[in-house]
Structure formats: structure tokens, C-alpha cells
Fold these 2 entries.
Entry 1:
Amino acid sequence: MSKLVLPGTIWLASDLHLGPQAPATQEAFLAFLQAAADEADALILPGDIFDAWIGDDVIRAAPPWLAQALAGLKATGARTQLWIGHGNRDFLMGQELADAIGARLLPDPVTLVTDFGEILLSHGDAYCTDDAAYQQFRGMVRDPRWQNEFLSKTIPERLALAQAARGESVSANQAKSAEIMDVNAQAVAQAFADAGVGLMVHGHTHRPGRHVEMIEGRRRERWVLPDWDLDHAQPPRGGWMVIDRDGPQVFDIDLED
Ligand code: LP5
Ligand code: MN
């Protein structure tokens, strides 16, 4: 199990799903990035930063929305520790992107050693073990051989495949129960036991919240990070977590201005 020692104030945000389809979300995220650079000793983005990431080479000729997002990430990466983690949409993010924005690639799962204690952090998709179809897809796309083959295609070819995969996913999800797409209790219990911690944070499910339960006689606390959507969701939503010596706290973004 990877460990990451992060003293001080840590900010976390996941499931931004940045892309050309999300200008309002991106605008709010850019403001968030500036605030994080001002306030946080470290900013962790544990997955699904982008709605679909088809390979780092896209940054060499970035479309305007991506150039703007990269500039914001780079400005924050120059002022505070920036960690980017893999989600089920951006598992292809690599070192070229990390170097370009002054970020480090976050292991998943990882135990954060914070001023509040040890906290297990993951994107969370690996805990959705009831979703056999997704876990099969995950096994395929996380295989380095598959990734090398995919990345050897042209950007237009990869864009077409990503679009097809998005379409398949949207229609597959319509046929799935909400429970299947949530984390599995046994998978969560095993993750707590493997890490030997009592506190876990993850994203992915788009079901923000805090769950406290006794698992095998021990108190376990599981936080789910908010997803961001200021373009299509009603009401618009977005939020982040702060971890400091007082523990985790979640804040909603200010939608007033
Ligand atoms: O992503 P979301 O929220 O819709 O649902 C996820 C799970 N689905 C996925 C699939 C991604 O959305 C696919 C897009 C990734 C783009 C980036 C890289 C490009 C890779 C291209 C790959 C060919 O993560 C969904 C879960 C849900 O979360 C809740 O946890 O249920 O899982 C599924 O829907 C599994 C499906 O059965 C398989 C989905 C994609 C299959 C694609 C096969 C190849 C298509 C192209 C062939 C020409
Ligand atoms: Mn996700």
C-alpha cells in the first residue's frame, strides 16, 4: 500500500469531468484552483478530472478549453503541491501531462498520512464490484498492453473509440440498478482492512456523503467526494474536501456570483 505524507492543509476535488461540454463547470473549477493555490499546502484531484482523456499527446495541440484548463492547473501546480489521480474516464493520464502542469501522479489506492491521521484515498470505481461489466472493462483498459495498443492509434481514431465507449456506457447504465453502480460493502470492508485505517475518502459514485458504520467491530468512516456539474445539472453542483488537523470537512462551491 502506497503512503503519502502530507502535513498541513489538504484540499481534494474529484469528478470535475472537464471537457468542451462543461464551460460553466470549468469556469468554477478555475476559480477553485486559484483558491486552492492560495489556501492549501497540497491539492489532490483523485480522478475524473477530465470527461474523457485519450492520451497525453493531446496537450501538444490542445483545443482552447483544454489549453485553458491546463493553464489553470499549471498555475496552481507552480504554487502548491498538485496530485492528479486516475478515474475511469482519465486512466490514461501520464507523466507528460503531469510534467506539463507541475503535478505528480497519485497512486490509487493511497494512504494519506495527514495531521489528522491516516486516510485511505481512492477514486472509488474499484469498489464497485457488483458491476461485473464495468470491472471487466476496467481490467481491459488498465492493462498496459491494451493501453500501448490504444495509444498507438491516431488521435481521431482514439476520439471515435472514446465516443463509442461513452455511448455504450450511457446506454449500459440505463439498464443498471443504482445499487450495482455503488460501492460494494465487502469491497469497502476489505479496503479498510487492507489499509488498516478507519477513515476512507473516494469519489466516482456522484453520491456525496459521509457514512459511519461498525465493520467487524471497528468504527469505519467513508466520505464520498462531490461531483461537479454547473452546465447540465439542476441545481448546479460542485464541492471539495479540506483535510487538516481537525479532520475532513466538505464545502459546496459558492453558486451566488
Ligand atoms: O463513465 P460513466 O459514468 O458513464 O460510467 C462508468 C462506467 N463506464 C465507464 C466507461 C467510460 O465511460 C468509457 C469512456 C472512457 C473514455 C476515456 C478513454 C477512452 C477509452 C476507449 C475505450 C474503448 O467507465 C460504467 C459504470 C458506471 O461508471 C458506474 O460505476 O457502470 O461501466 C459500464 O458502463 C461498463 C460497460 O459495460 C462498458 C462501457 C464501455 C465499453 C466500451 C467498449 C469499446 C467501445 C468501442 C468499440 C468500437
Ligand atoms: Mn468516476
Note: The pocket of manganese (II) ion (ligand 2) is lined by residues 15, 47-48, 87-88, 123, 125, 204 (CB under 6 Å).
Entry 2:
Amino acid sequence: MIRFICTKDYDDMSRKAANIIGSLIVSKPNCVLGLATGSTPIGAYARLVEGYENGDLDFSAVKSVNLDEYRGLTHDNDQSYYYFMNHHLFSKVNIDKNNTYVPDGTIADAEEACKQYDEIVASMGGVDLQLLGMGHNGHIGFNEPNDVFVKGTNCVNLAQSTIDANARFFEKKEDVPTQAYTMGIQTIMNAKKILVVVNGEGKADIVEKAFFGDVTPQVPASILQFHPDVIVVGDEAAFSKIKNRL
Ligand code: F6R
């Protein structure tokens, strides 16, 4: 079942998403969070940091598993998702770094990297809440449009549109990663609750396709229609094509 929360703007979306995550941390201090990177959740992470700073949120028993990582990027590369998570959240709250996991992009052997990450996620005993952003092509994690829904952690060739969208973050075109390790669709779907954040007019078409169109691996996020507990928090612009159906 999907519930939609339409918010005024990016700040409103970020605050409401952070409130949902924060209320879980309060009610279940040792919860397992599935986390995402990308530009959309940055505001929500900032609100969570505020919650920690003002004494409302205690991350000391929280565990986290991230969705994805670029293959080949080292932890100190400021474009790696490892770096992103430390920068936006982990270094700013009292989470135990030993309880935070991001797929290891430095493991060259893709099969081994994916196997290791599946074992880590399994050892968590279930993700309580998975935070997701959504690509313009409907990708979740880095599960790109495909002929099938890939179940477990996998090494993907990024879609050209994704490589192009990421190019702005790298000095040279050659430095833009072309592959990534990502949690699979089944792993994402196994989370007890899923929180999707979307903002901006650019996401309006894919929001309509993913949540009101056919369920197909060509639009990976459409699988969320089959999950029992999804909340999509979006701003008015991202919801502009679905507002009459809410
Ligand atoms: C990031 C991730 C991606 C992003 C998606 C949207 O960990 O899994 O699926 O959520 O590319 O990115 P933004 O938020 O930058 O539009």
C-alpha cells in the first residue's frame, strides 16, 4: 500500500521525511535504517542532525545499511557514497561507525563484493525502514531499467543518462564511474517500511509512471506498488501529475 504526503517544498519534504525516520529512532532505538544518497535526502539528513543536536534523537544503537556505492571509488574520494554518508550524517551524530555499512566499492571482485554485502544485510536481521530516492528513469538504488528485477546485491552498468547526470560532480569525464554495486530489488522490498523522497518538477513524470503505471522492471520503482507499507513524501512539483488522484 502506498501513502502519499504532499509537501509545500523541499524543506517541508525534508522535515516530514526526517520526522518519520526520527519517530522510528525514538520508538525503536536499535532500529536498522536502510539509507540512500543523492541530492534528495540531504535536507532530511540535515534535519536528523538537528534532532541529534537538540537532544531529541539518539543514534547510539542505530544500525544502517546503504543502498549502493560506485565501483572503484575509494572511501576518501569525495564522490563516493561512503564519503557522502560520513559527511552528511554519520560524522555529525552519535552513531557507532562500526554499525554503519555501505557497499565496498574498493573490492574489485564484483561477485565477492556482492556476496559480502548480502551477508551483511542478512546479518542485520531485517531493515526497519528503507529510505529511497528515485532516478528520472525510475531506478532505485542503482537498479536501472532492466528485463528482470534483480534480487540481491549486484554490480550494474550505469545507464548513460545516470552517467551523464553524475558527470557534474567530476572534474573529468573519464573519472565518472560507469559501474556501481547496489542492493537488489528483493532486498529493498524486504524492508518493513519504505520511505521514498522526491522533489522537483523533473521527477513528476516518473512519479506518475512508477506509482500509477504498470509494474515492470523497465521502471524499477514500480515494484513498490506491491510493498505493503510505502510512504512517498514529495513536494507539489514532483506530485504535479498525480495530484488529482491523491
Ligand atoms: C542513491 C540512490 C539513487 C538516488 C537517485 C535519485 O543512493 O540509490 O537511486 O536515490 O539517483 O538521486 P537524486 O536524489 O540525486 O535525484
Note: The first strand starts at residue 2 and ends at 7.
